[in-house]
Design brief:
Helix content: 55-70%
Structural class: mainly alpha
Order of helices and strands: HHHHHHHHHHEEHHHHHHEHHEEEEHEE
Number of domains: 2
Strand content: 5-15%
Strand order of the largest sheet: 4-5-6-3-7-9-8
Number of strands: 9
Length: 522
Amino acid sequence: MLYFQKRCMSMYRCYCADTKHYNILLGVLALGFLVRLALITRLPGGLNQDETYAGYEAFSMLKYGTDSWGYRMPVYFVSWGSGMNVLNSYLMIPFIAILGPTTLALRLPQALLGCASLVVFYLLLKELFSKKAALAGLIVAAVCPWHIMMSRWGLESNIAPGMLLFGFYFFMVGLRRPGFLIASAVSYGLCLYAYATMWAFVPFLLGGQIIFALCYKKLKFNKFTVISAAALAALGIPLILFLLVQSGRIPEIRTFFMSIPKMPVMRDSDFAFQNFGEPDQYRNLFDLIIKQFDGGHYNSLPNFGLYYLFSLPLAIYGVRVLWKRAKQQQKNRVLPTAILPLYYLAAALALCVMISRINVNRINALHFAILIPCGAAIGRFFEKRRYKPVFWAAAAAYAVSFLMFINVYTTKGPSFQHAEEPLRFAASLSETSPICITTHIYHPTVLYCVAQPTDEYVKTVVYDNPRAPWMSAQSFGRFTFGDDVGMLDRNTIYIIENYSGQRFREAGFTVKQFDGYSVAYI
């Protein structure tokens, strides 16, 4: 009877502990979701030209069956002339179908992927350590400035870090449950369509993981590995064909279900293996990692950095934690999976050195590779009783920094072009009147905000800098661009800077002012 009572009490304590754990987990995830989803149509303010171009490509494929250059289901967009990654646009299609061409439809895919990344980050740390350590480590990602800011706007290349994390986690789980290798292969394959630098990084990262699995006899020839290889090949072959098209070895491919376009300009200088031998590359990368700021306020804020400036010592300590964990696993004759995050970090650093014109977005393969050791360090502090004071000090530092960051971000955060309202208002005034844009509003922002018919755009667009890496439209449909207005045409609707309204008022135009631009019309 006494044994039974002790057993019941033990089970009850475990239940209470689990309930407390999962309640805290849900609280941390709820906080993480909130700061990634709340007010995403207003923070950051306005619209970025890259997210509107990705949105217009999605709108074009949804409504007209082709992209903005007339290609059906391309594996890589022509867009600006030198290309654009496609995955984000394909993810936008269902949201635009439901919500229309809105700011919310542009940003939901990235925001939801950011939320899903938090769950996978927790599961990854739990796979490496304990659920207690994983919960503590999750805090690092939940309040991370880079991840919060990245999740809140639709830059197409920023889909890549989440897909990388999914592929990495599913591979680790797949070492003991082979069915997850298929999910890993699909995640890595889709990652290739998220950012072109992944074409070099994914084979390198996945190749190292496969060698690790073969060395420890955890990868066997079975239906799961065959399906995984087939899925990865199916996703990778179109991009191999794309490179062959760009090199001129085969003509461009157009089919009813897929297109492989020939780029007017190929940006092959963005990545170069010879950069590995350039000392400046190492200095630039080191400088960016230390300062955690590249001048782009949409990526990070000064004084806060990408992961908070005090996180780098934690990351260094986390590397030590992972290394000791791997040695302990080997000593206990357990698969040393803690080696894999260290390889991920080393591979990401090597990739970043080879990227030209290093900035936060271009090295986005690195950020989770740094956050994993940070999470490992915090988890270690929380797990070990003697380190509890260090954990609470670090937790307090993260809490205070997070509150300060949110205050600055919501009051002085980044802002893009506030062109959506004036463009839609101008288009609503008349269905046929010419619209002259006299200020520097990017043409894809116009395309998306007014839902420009793609067939008309393809037939009428004139570029002012053909064969440039970033082509801009001189005119299309009833829209023209240029700050040299000359004589004012009373039949034309003008979109102007707010400070330019007096000239138009004197000429008899009505000027309606918006946040950023004005519309002059008669």
